[in-house]
Amino acid sequence: MSRSSPSVVCAKTQPFSLKAMRHVFSDGNARSSRKRSFLSRRSGRQSESAWRTENHQMGTRSVSVKPSKTIWQFLRFNGSSHVYQTFRRAKEHCMRPSSWHPPVELSCVEQIIIKRIKRATLFVFLRHHRHELFDEAFQEELITLYTASAYGRPPTSPAQLALATVIQAYTGVSDDEVIEATLMDRRWQLVLDCLDAEEPPFSKGTLVAFRKRLIDQQMDRRLIERTIELASQSQTFGSRMLRAALDSSPLWGAGRVEDTYNLVGHALKKVMRVVADQQGRELAEVASEAGAELVCGSSLKATLDRDWDQQLQKDEALALVLQVLHTVDAWVQRLTDPEDKIVAEPVLAIAKQVQGRMYRSAKRER
Questions:
Q1: For residues 335 and 350, what is the distance between their CA atoms, to the nearest angstrom?
Q2: Closest Cα partner for 36 from 48, 19, 53?
Q3: pLDDT, tens digit, for every residue of 23-62?
């Protein structure tokens, strides 16, 4: 058989019309639902025959087996592999994530919402600059996180999911709270372009799966740095505060080992906590006595507040962490109660091990 267009092949062989083929690829689920609804209103042996009659009248040729399976067989085994490949590529194209192009100009409703936002100005910043953050080039990078597939539903736009991830990392809410916010919080709706939505723009599973793809491909750092760079350029939102919030977010820890700076900080904090518990004192009091107030926060890396892409600032941070570690080590050695040393020294040993790993990593980067 000569290579022909899909319509010519179907006209010659006559097993299916092109209309039927398009119907199966584009509206197979709707057809199945319509059939179930039809059969539920009828009973007996004639119900299937009645369905075929009605379906034929609607312009789709009836077949004795599943239409999708029969068409695949027809395309594969009747010398029409090029047609099969054409339709498969078309189906894969439909399953490819699409770019996200929300409006740039503010609507009247959005202007009213922005005027009422007094404290959470990150939402205002992202609404004004989301089109710059997710330009065509960056959206293409995010789309590469997905592989083309001829099955399933078209994925949600990665740019919209990435924007939701940035807000989630900054605000510290859970995955369930993100989905709730897309329906209940006008600020989230403003940024994600889903004002007055009755259904969330994506599911919890979709959000979690996207975040895993983002972290696995190390695109989370790319997303963070682009957001911080844009904030620094626009000067409409504090880039240092944004960096501290995004870098210290536990959200990224869901997919990779916790940053070594924070591991050291947690270990040193635990050294003082076990001593404080042993002595019946407050952590802040013990930390002040040890000269290690720096590690009392939730994130040592956020407290250090450095630009982690600048080697000089990373070296300064490393020196400061080593200084705190030596200070805590000397304080533990000065403890007079042997029981205090017994509980503190094993934890301090862990901090020293992590510090050694951090030092070796810093030498490799130089």
A1: 19
A2: 48
A3: 444 444 455 555 555 555 555 545 555 655 555 555 444 3
